[in-house]
Specification:
Layout lengths: L3 E4 L8 H15 L6 H16 L13 H10 L4 H16 L11 H10 L3 E5 L4 H9 L12 E3 L9 H11 L6 E5 L2 H9 L3 E5 L14 E2 L6
Parallel strand pairs: 1-2, 1-4, 2-3, 4-5, 5-6
Length: 224
């Protein structure tokens, strides 16, 4: 029995095209406007953590850090400092009406139906919680956040580690076996399955090919 649903965003609720062709270029074009002292401090701490983990980050060109930010964007690094910065840039874009959230057509009726049935629906994305809420609150189908009861980002933990899903399952206050995680990335499904969650592989237009696996697949949320 499914009592909780945990959703990825990119390639699951939202087309990858929207993320790579709309959101990322917008953040890149406006990043220089947001690199104040607070943002630079966060980026420096992030860089120090990267060095400590021996991830070989690009040398940050201080002051300014714009080249470092662009490098992380090019690498699609799941940096909390970068995700926070992107979220603030997008927030202003949404406020000015330059950005609007996008989801697949089957998502709004599914969210509403699950909510009506008493199923606890939450989001887990590498994008900041702010960025997640902006996508779902500004869709052409209206504000969908009323159907979502929780959000998780990189501050909870990496999406490729089982411990992150254990933490999330505990916050649901449900047995892990009653929660299904839907994502387009097999590595994330492996981690969630390691925490005893049910998993489904989202097959959406434009998604990246995934390694051979035996996971159940969904092409529409109507199948859940």
């Amino acid at each position: 029995m499914i009592q909780g649903i945990l959703l990825d965003i990119e390639g699951t609720t939202t087309p990858i095209r929207f993320v790579y062709d709309v959101l990322f270029p917008f953040a890149r074009a406006h990043a220089h406007e947001y690199l104040g002292e607070e943002a630079q401090r966060a980026l420096k701490l992030d860089h120090e953590r990267e060095v400590a983990k021996r991830l070989e980050p690009a040398p940050p060109p201080w002051p300014g850090a714009l080249a470092y930010v662009h490098w992380m964007m090019d690498q699609d690094r799941k940096s909390t400092a970068l995700k926070d910065l992107q979220g603030k840039i997008w927030q202003d874009g949404y406020r000015r009406g330059e950005l609007h959230g996008e989801v697949f057509p089957d998502v709004p009726p599914a969210l509403e139906g699950w909510h009506r049935s008493g199923i606890d629906v939450r989001i887990f994305s590498s994008g900041s919680i702010l960025a997640q809420q902006l996508i779902f609150s500004t869709t052409p189908q209206g504000d969908l956040t009323r159907f979502i009861s929780g959000y998780y980002d990189t501050t909870t933990g990496p999406k490729g580690e089982a411990s992150s899903y254990e933490t999330i399952a505990a916050s649901f206050a449900l047995p892990a076996e009653q929660i299904v995680f839907i994502s387009d990335v097999v590595r994330e499904l492996d981690a969630a399955a390691g925490a005893n969650l049910q998993v489904r592989l989202a097959l959406r237009p434009g998604n990246h090919p995934q390694p051979q696996n035996s996971y159940r697949t969904v092409t529409s949320f109507a199948e859940i």
